[in-house]
Amino acid sequence: MQQLLQEVIVLVKEAGDFIRKEAQAFDKSKIEYKGKNDLVSYVDKETEKFIVAGLSKILPGAGFIAEEGTSTKRSDSYNWVIDPLDGTTNFTHGLPVYAISVALLKRGELTLGVVYDVSRDECFHATKGGGAFLNHMPISVSPVKTIDKGLIATGFPYYNFEQMNQYLAILNDFMQSTHGLRRMGSAAIDLAYTACGRFEGFFEYNLNSYDVAAGALLVKEAGGIVTDFRGGDDFLFGREIVAGNIAQPEILQIIQNHWNK
Ligand code: IPD
Ligand code: CA
Ligand code: CA
């Protein structure tokens, strides 16, 4: 697994070089739309092709869950879960907060995760049972025990506004009970920053597996807790995630006080 991880890191950093180069000259006329406020560009697509091609060599036979659909091949044993550019809206607006997220599922279980924060050249990685690291240095979740001394990250709804009132009630609570709320615009970065203790927690709904797979493993391997909004395990495909340090149950409780009521 360690050998595999090193090869994935080299590949992801090469993909990051491409994104960094394209960011210097990106022109907003190149934005395409997959749906309302759902942006994509040639940078997302080409990065994904590069990563899928590289991973196909590193682990022949593995399948893919990849956001831009470069490969839809699935395997009974190993599947890569890839977001080639998490934070596309930031990228297209020249806001340097975006990441590459690559995870490996072994029979449905997260076993490896890499989140590469391209602009800051910060590479977060974890393997199941092997701990979590930032640029090869061990990381752990924040030691802060209660959210009144915590910084919490989230993602704002941007295309499905059906649960807006409940969501706003949750934000209202967090604004009054924490050091502050942040909306970075990249779920992978939100989770990586939770893993290394910059945030005490992160929650969002309507995310896909490729947004959270690598980051969720980072948080768990850094000693954190990751659940869905009911406190269960369905955070990878269930479109609800709450991740955090020891204060995660307190964060979850605030969400549950308002969600689906
Ligand atoms: C998005 C980012 C964002 C989150 C969105 C995601 P993308 O991913 O993770 O933070 O709020 O829901 O779709 O589209 O930039 O890969
Ligand atoms: Ca994403
Ligand atoms: Ca993406």
TrEMBL record:
Transmembrane segments: none annotated. Coiled coil: none annotated. Keywords: Hydrolase, Magnesium, Metal-binding. Mg(2+) binds at residues 67, 83, 85-86, 211. One of its GO terms (biological process) is signal transduction. Its cofactor is Mg(2+). One of its GO terms (molecular function) is metal ion binding. It catalyses: a myo-inositol phosphate + H2O = myo-inositol + phosphate. Its EC number is 3.1.3.25. It comes from the Bacteria. Pfam families: Inositol_P. Belongs to the inositol monophosphatase superfamily. This is Inositol-1-monophosphatase.
